[in-house]
Write a structure and sequence with these properties.
Elements (H helix, E strand, L loop, with lengths): L14 H9 L6 E6 L5 E4 L16 E6 L3 E8 L2 E8 L5
Antiparallel strand pairs: 1-2, 1-3, 4-5
Amino acid sequence: MTESPESRVEPYEGLDEKQRKMTGEPLPKAIVEICDGCHWCATCINQKGALGRCPMCNRKTSTIKMDIDEVCYFEEKNGNVTLRFERKLPMR
């Protein structure tokens, strides 16, 4: 029987899980906030910093929560914006 490549993947313990084990509390979540209308976007350190409404067109914004060890790159080319998400720490 051949072994599946997925069987060799080791579980990854993120920084949030390590923090919970040490203090019982999670780390704050970073937020990416995107306007549903004009696609204005921003990042926030925690949920309290999110605006909820776009400062450009006053429409509702959507949010994407990220762990503290994740980063979001905004790439603009020819008027199009691409969001790319990565982990700061390599998967082990």
